[in-house]
Automatic annotation (TrEMBL):
One of its GO terms (cellular component) is membrane. The chain crosses the membrane at residues 184-205. This is TIGR04211 family SH3 domain-containing protein. It comes from Parashewanella curva. The lineage of its organism: Bacteria, Pseudomonadati, Pseudomonadota, Gammaproteobacteria, Alteromonadales. It holds the Pfam family SH3_3. It is a single-pass membrane protein. Residues 127-179 form a coiled coil.
Length: 216
């Protein structure tokens, strides 16, 4: 759960970066519109002359947005440079700027946007994976709780059955004890009765007469 919270925070950070990126693009467009003369137009070429003026020979052209090296020489509104092909010449000073043009910054911004989108996509994938894992864990926990509840019910059922069986056996033992006591007293009574009867019979039997001893 803690990992999902971290991912959510990270997503908010990426969204904030995306908004910042869009704002920078809009701000860059506004700046370009306000300072048109300081940026090379994206739809023209700058002519490279052999001297500081349009009357000098054209050596070639420099595509708008290309990186050039300034030699810090200016004359008649022209600046001396070395272009991206290594050619040295003069171009209109108001057509160059020390800041990167939109043609250079746009690929960088597009790459940043692509990186942000990729990060968001990867983040969404990780969040979906963690959500699936969390759901699986929740399902397993639910099954475990159901199994535990079922086991507790089975245990309670066995305990009740065992208790009933113990009570039944105890009843049988008590009944056997009662039967044994009754049998004991019955047999004892019978023995006593038989003994009494024998005693009475013996008492009423005729006794043999005593013979007188002969005197010599």
């Amino acid at each position: 759960m803690h990992s999902i919270n971290n991912i959510t925070t990270y997503r908010k950070s990426l969204v904030l970066r995306l908004f910042t990126f869009v704002f920078c693009i809009l701000l860059s467009g506004l700046t370009t519109a306000q300072e048109d003369t300081r940026y090379v137009s994206e739809n023209i070429y700058i002519y490279l002359h052999s001297g500081p003026g349009s009357q000098y020979k054209i050596l070639g052209s420099v595509a708008a947005g290309k990186t050039i090296s300034s030699l810090n020489e200016t004359e008649n509104g022209y600046a001396k440079i070395i272009d991206d092909k290594g050619r040295e010449g003069w171009v209109q000073a108001n057509m160059i700027t020390s800041k990167p043009t939109f043609r250079i910054t746009q690929p960088q911004l597009e790459q940043q946007l692509a990186d942000i989108k990729q990060s968001l996509s990867q983040n969404d994938s990780k969040e979906a994976q963690l959500t699936a894992q969390l759901q699986q864990t929740t399902d397993k926990l639910s099954l475990a709780e159901q199994a535990k509840k079922k086991a507790e019910q089975e245990l309670l059922k066995v305990q009740m059955q065992t208790k009933d069986e113990v009570a039944r056996l105890q009843t049988q033992v008590n009944e056997l004890n009662d039967d044994a006591k009754y049998q004991f007293w019955r047999e004892g009574g019978m023995i006593a009765g038989i003994g009494l009867l024998i005693g009475l019979v013996i008492a009423y039997l005729p006794r043999p007469s005593r013979k007188h001893k002969t005197r010599w």
